[in-house]
Specification:
The chain has 309 residues and is α/β, with parallel strands linked by helices. Helices cover 32% and strands 18% of the residues. The protein has 10 helices and 16 strands. The protein is globular, with a radius of gyration of 18 Å.
Length: 309
């Protein structure tokens, strides 16, 4: 067993560095810019049962030490997703790297989407199904599900009954009850948690005297949110026994190691890809070098290690 291998419930990954949903497309778009084989896994862009146009543009803008985004889960819908992306995803990524992310408004939406994935991917063709209950910038569904323990339990229970994939619960950590939401995910048998939501923010164009984003507000991504993500990982590690995939502000290997020491078993690299498409590979190299220099023989040695201070 490689010292970088990690197990998240029923999910076995070659290493702990993942590409975050929404920032790595469907994997194959990055092929010309980085070595996809080095990723532990990639969470594909969230797909919903019906097509979504997303939020009103402009939807991305640069801010100090990060960016604002307000995409609104734009996607072509499940039928088009299967037709146009399925084969490309399978060609670009190994089965153990593929995490399919699904979103929805109601329990039935998630169940139908999960069933559609099961019809087109066998259990040995993907690593896991990510139930996205976290998106904070859609009018309904998403964040509303991930901020309610009861609603999340309903969704996870129904999806688990419908399909046999390992399940990652992507939860909303912007609410004060995020630890209770995590406990609900654990109760319903999720294999892992994916956190953390980036905080909401906005920017104003002082010349046009109006908000920069068409949706006015949007999540803040980038190094500035790193301390918040680490703090939420720290709290969740104490609250639940589920493996945690931590994300938010990870642009360097040092940031990734901080997340692991706080309790994350794996890390999701998101907006760093927009600055450096090879960021995830460089972060993986840095984590591996850190382990060698500190005589860490197994990744599990550093997961949550800072709690022993």
């Amino acid at each position: 067993m490689s010292k970088l291998e990690i197990t998240l419930g029923r999910i076995k990954l070659s290493n702990p560095v993942l590409g975050a949903s929404g920032c790595v497309g469907h994997g194959f778009e990055l092929e010309g810019y980085t070595d996809l084989s080095r990723y532990g896994a990639l969470s594909m862009k969230t797909v919903t049962l019906e097509p979504r146009a997303g939020n009103r543009p402009p939807r991305i803008c640069e801010v100090s030490d990060g960016m604002l985004s307000s995409i609104g889960l734009q996607n072509p819908g499940m039928a088009s997703y299967i037709q146009h992306y399925k084969d490309k995803i399978k060609t670009a990524c190994r089965p153990d790297q593929i995490i399919i992310s699904i979103g929805g408004n109601e329990v039935e939406d998630y169940v139908k989407s999960a069933a559609a994935i099961a019809e087109n991917f066998s259990p040995d063709e993907i690593a896991a199904l990510e139930v996205n209950a976290a998106c904070p910038n859609v009018a309904h569904g998403g964040g509303a599900v991930g901020s309610s323990p009861g609603k999340l339990q309903d969704v996870l229970s129904a999806v688990r009954k419908a399909v046999d994939f390992p399940i990652i619960a992507k939860i909303n950590t912007n609410e004060g009850n995020f630890c209770e939401v995590a406990k609900a995910a654990q109760h319903e048998g999720a294999d892992a948690l994916y956190i953390a939501n980036t905080p909401m923010g906005m920017a104003i164009d002082i010349r046009r005297r109006k908000p920069v984003l068409g949706n006015v507000k949007g999540p803040v991504s980038g190094p500035a949110v790193l301390p918040q993500g680490i703090a939420k990982t720290w709290e969740l590690y104490k609250a639940v026994s589920l493996p945690i995939i931590g994300s938010g502000g990870i642009y360097t290997w040092e940031a990734a190691v901080q997340y692991m020491l706080a309790g994350a078993s794996a890390v999701g690299i998101g907006s760093a890809h927009f600055v450096n498409p090879n960021a995830a590979v460089e972060i993986l190299d840095g984590v591996e070098k850190y382990m060698e220099e500190n005589h860490v023989l197994d990744l599990r040695e550093i997961i949550g290690a800072a709690h022993a201070f």
